[in-house]
């Protein structure tokens, strides 16, 4: 499954929508990125998001805060951006620092600007099947499955990983599409036995090649959200590819979709906010 190509098309569509919005209303969609400290990986992620924003016709406003920023100061910054009518989406780069109460910080993001899908409001809306912003990586996975016309109703989906930003929401979204969902995690007994039963496998763990190719059911759809040092996913790719019906590579699968969804959701937010 070609995440790079699909992400490129999504960014192009997003750029066209952004341009149309600007022509119609004068509004230029703006994504504010907030980074606490200067962790090199986080700096790179934020820079990638800013570069892609430009390609999608989205302005980026960066707020860099010192590493010793307190939770209260971070909350004040996010509250101010939530009230700023020229900002349509807000992204707080995770991790914000060990001394920060990240949940309190995320909750300072106004739900209508939560384009990264990190607030309790967004999570609950997804759980209730109500409109709201998806967490970006799960949203990207669902768009990949839709683009490849993967039928989910009645299929057995096995999600390996249950983090709040990835495994848990992707399982909820698959359930929303009528899949029968099994969650596996670090305490699951006999992971292989579960994977062998799966029509759709989503690997969201962060352990290189944890999912053995030999366990993939012939014809299954394999989504590898893992990203480990050395460009290695959570699935034993070469062995899994022979058996899978569809599979995402690492890199070039799920990864590019995440930022593309972030930008698409920023333009959604700008459209809604400029419609009043
Ligand atoms: P996380 O918060 O560390 O969660 C990892 C999950 O995997 C946990 O639920 C954990 O179980 C489970 N797990 C750990 N070891 C396991 C094992 N041996 N067997 C079965 N389950 C196991 O990680 P995350 O943030 O969800 O990220 C997961 C992976 O996705 C990472 O490689 C990350 O880099 C990647 N990722 C990619 C994107 C993207 O844009 N492509 C975005 C986000 C994350 P417990 O709950 O029991 O601890």
Describe, in short, the structure shown.
With 276 residues, the chain is an alpha/beta fold. The protein is built from 10 helices and 8 strands. The strands form 2 sheets. The protein has a 5-stranded parallel β-sheet, sandwiched between helices. Strands 2-1-3 form a 3-stranded parallel β-sheet, sandwiched between helices.
Structure description:
The model has no long low-confidence stretch (mean pLDDT 97). This protein has helices spanning 3-25, 40-55, 71-83, 102-106, 120-128, 136-147, 167-176, 191-196, 237-243, 254-274, and strands spanning 30-36, 59-65, 89-92, 156-160, 180-184, 200-203, 221-224, 246-247. α1 (3-25) runs parallel beside α10 and α6 packs across α10. The protein is an alpha/beta fold. It has two domains: 12-111, 3-Layer(aba) Sandwich (Rossmann fold); 136-253, NAD(P)-binding Rossmann-like Domain (Rossmann fold), CATH 3.40.50.720. Strands 5-4-6-7-8 form a five-stranded parallel beta sheet, with helices on both faces. Strands 2-1-3 form a three-stranded parallel beta sheet, with helices on both faces. It binds NADP nicotinamide-adenine-dinucleotide phosphate. The site of NADP nicotinamide-adenine-dinucleotide phosphate has 26 residues, from α10. NADP nicotinamide-adenine-dinucleotide phosphate (NAP) is lined by residues 137, 160-163, 165-167, 184-188, 191, 204-207, 210, 225-228, 254-255, 258.
Give me the secondary-structure topology.
Layout: H1 3-25, E1 30-36, H2 40-55, E2 59-65, H3 71-83, E3 89-92, H4 102-106, H5 120-128, H6 136-147, E4 156-160, H7 167-176, E5 180-184, H8 191-196, E6 200-203, E7 221-224, H9 237-243, E8 246-247, H10 254-274
Parallel strand pairs: 1-2, 1-3, 4-5, 4-6, 6-7, 7-8
């Amino acid at each position: 499954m070609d995440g790079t190509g699909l992400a490129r098309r999504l960014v192009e569509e997003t750029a066209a929508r952004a341009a149309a919005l600007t022509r119609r209303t004068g509004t230029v969609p703006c994504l504010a990125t907030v980074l606490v400290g200067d962790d090199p990986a986080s700096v790179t992620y934020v820079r990638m998001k800013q570069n892609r924003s430009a390609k999608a016709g989205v302005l980026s406003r960066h707020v860099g805060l010192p590493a010793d920023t307190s939770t209260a100061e971070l909350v004040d910054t996010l509250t101010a951006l939530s009230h700023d009518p020229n900002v349509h989406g807000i992204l707080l780069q995770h991790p914000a620092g060990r001394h920060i109460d990240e949940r309190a910080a995320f909750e300072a993001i106004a739900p209508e600007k939560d384009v990264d899908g990190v607030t309790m409001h967004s999570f609950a809306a997804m759980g209730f099947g109500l409109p709201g912003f998806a967490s970006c990586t799960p949203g990207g996975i669902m768009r990949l499955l839709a683009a490849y016309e993967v039928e989910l109703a009645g299929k057995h989906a096995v999600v390996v990983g249950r983090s709040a930003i990835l495994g848990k929401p992707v399982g909820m979204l698959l359930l929303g599409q009528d899949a029968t969902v099994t969650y596996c995690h670090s305490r699951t007994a006999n992971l292989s036995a579960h994977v062998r039963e799966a029509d759709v496998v989503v690997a969201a763990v962060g352990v290189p090649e944890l999912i053995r190719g030999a366990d993939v059911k012939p014809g299954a759809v394999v989504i590898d959200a893992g990203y480990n040092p050395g460009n290695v996913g959570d699935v034993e790719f070469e062995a899994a590819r022979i058996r899978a019906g569809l599979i995402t590579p690492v890199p070039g699968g799920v990864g590019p979709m995440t930022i593309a969804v972030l930008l698409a959701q920023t333009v959604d937010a700008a459209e809604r906010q400029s419609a009043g």
